[in-house]
Amino acid sequence: MxxxxxxxxxxxxxxxxxxxxxxKGKPPPELYQHLDPTHFNVEKKSYDIHMTLNTHHRxxxxxxxxxxxxxxxxxxxxxHMSEGEVLAVNGPPGTGKxxxxxxxxxxxxxxxALNQDTRPPLTLATSANNxxxxxxxxxxxxxxxYRWLPDIGGFGIYFPSGQKKEYATKKNIQMSSPxxxxxxxxxxxxxxxxxxxxxxxxxxxxxxxxxxxxxxxLGEALNTVQQDMRLINKSILDVITLIGSIASQxxxxxxxxxxxxxDQYESFLKDDVKRHKLEIIRLSNANNAVVKYLKSEPHxxxxxxxxxxxxxxxxxxxxxxxxxxxxSDSLINECRENLKRxxxxx
Length: 346
Prior knowledge:
mainly alpha
């Protein structure tokens, strides 16, 4: 190409040249492999999204609205991404992409704090459209709503080109400066010793207000906050474990109840118990009726039972006694078959 290249075009062409000149046998960058997973035989992963989120999601930046099912699914994939993997999130305006991004950032910072990392996570937002970048910065302008450090204009910082610096100033967007040592931009503000000392006193003051105990150093404040975060994290894990246990019990109950709802099945069981209790009473009555007949039967009748007439009479008397005791028809039929076998009567 003729002409001098500047900015993104120069960097993109340089990347193309690098990829084209890769030596055979040398693996390309992880990101490049995941852009063409079939060619590089990159294994696709599958996750149990609900369990993934329940056990690993740690924070949201704004609690006004909970994440939707699709946002939670996307966040679950993000949490378990490996180095070089790509997650594409698509949706029309107003579907919660910015809220999702806020949860991604909040999760990363809380996990970093729980792990006591020495360096916080950094996220780079870039776009060919300048408006998209400023939209992201403005989304973090008031999130989180409460901060301990004074005079910080947001949770993000804008790196504008020279042409966009005036636009950022007019929009009051927190931005960097090519010359931070001259006091311009956020980093220029951080270079001022007064900001450091004022920030330290503000943190100690806010920590005391929140926890009710005085802390003298930033180290003590850090330990206090991290201890509180660990307790909250343990409570979250306890609740997750409880929810998992309830879900398992509910699944067992559903399998046991079949098509019926648990409350319907409880009513069914109660009716079944009543039915069996009534059957027990009838069986007891039947037993008493048979015993009563056998005790009252004359000895000479029982001694002549081998004659067919007396055998049939004894059988009929027993069945009559069972019928009068209100035993179920099924039980009478069962007794009739037993009597046939006992007396060898067809």
